[in-house]
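One thing: can you check what follows?
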Amino acid sequence: MPESTICPNCQSPYGYPTGSSMMCPECGHEWNPSETPAPTEEATTEEVVKDANGTVLQNGDTVVIIKDLPVKGASKPIKAGTKVKNIKLTTGDHNIDCKVDGYGAMGLKSQFVRKG
């Protein structure tokens, strides 16, 4: 497979041509295959995750859920005010991995928590 079809951002092998450039269907990154890509800064630097108030979150922080959150397969939602300890930051749509008492391991969006 030609090197130019591999996304320099996420290393996906599914890049496709869009006229004079290439596009990645997985991350949406667009690049010019004739330019030699330098190592991307996005891959080497960590993404900054902020809570609902704009406070930067870090691995191991304790957060408080600010809104009742419905859970698929559960009979009741996670109530606002529930404390979640020892979070782990990840990439993607749900950027917090954690364990919620009574519900188990799950992913949360940082927009529904505040640092506690």
Notes: The chain has two domains: 3-43, 63-115. The mean pLDDT is 84.
